Amino acid sequence: MLLISCPNCGPRDETEFHYGGQAHVAYPENPNELNDVEWSRYLFYRENPKGTFAERWVHSTGCRQWFNMLRDTVSYDIKAVYPMGTPRPDLAGRQTAEFGTASTAADSTTTGTAAPDISGTSISPATPAAPEGAAQ
Fold first, then answer.
1. CA distances, 109 to each of 9, 77, 116, 135 (Å)
2. Of 41, 45, 53, 86, whose CB count within 10 A is highest?
3. What is the pLDDT of residues 27-65, one digit of tens each?
4. CA 74, 80, 85: angle at the middle one, nearest 5?
5. What is the phi-psi region of residue 133: left when phi exceeds 0, alpha when psi lies from -120 to 50, beta otherwise?
6. Of 94, 133, 95, 126, nearest in space to 27 by CA
């Protein structure tokens, strides 16, 4: 069993949580303009690394809040837990300068460099702007 530290409730048994897939996947800027291939790439192409991976989790039987986690997919060692909307911490626990993705590759909206090629599509790898009036 994993002991997951919820950012709101503290350490809890993994049975209280549900996995939500890869973290930091940017929603397409204009989804209605995507063709079937581009839409399927957004929906189904995800990283599957051996090692540290950024994931989304929800505390489904507790506070019901979503959060992100860096977890080693081999050892299941949890490297970091951090709130949604915050940058991914690097492996030393410091926040990276980049927002939303773990790669600075121009064609990457996911972690790593094996992201699908989205050049020529309306999927934007740029940092989403905060809504007007929101604190940054």
1. 30, 24, 8, 24
2. 53
3. 999 999 999 999 999 999 999 999 999 999 999 999 999
4. 120
5. left
6. 126
Going by C-beta distance under 8 Å and a sequence separation of 6 or more, which residues neighbour residue 10? none
- Helix spans in the chain (H): 36-44
Please report where in the chains the tokens 């064609």 appear, as a residue: 107
Q: What is the pLDDT of residues 33-43, one digit of tens each?
A: 999 999 999 99
Q: pLDDT tens for residues 13-23?
A: 999 999 999 99
User: For tokens 């992100």, what's the residue?
Assistant: 68
For 72, phi and psi rounded to 5 degrees? Answer: -80, 120
Q: Answer whether 11's CB lies under 8 Å from 42's CB.
A: no
Q: Are strands 10-13 and 18-22 parallel, antiparallel or unpaired?
A: unpaired
- Entry pTM: 0.63
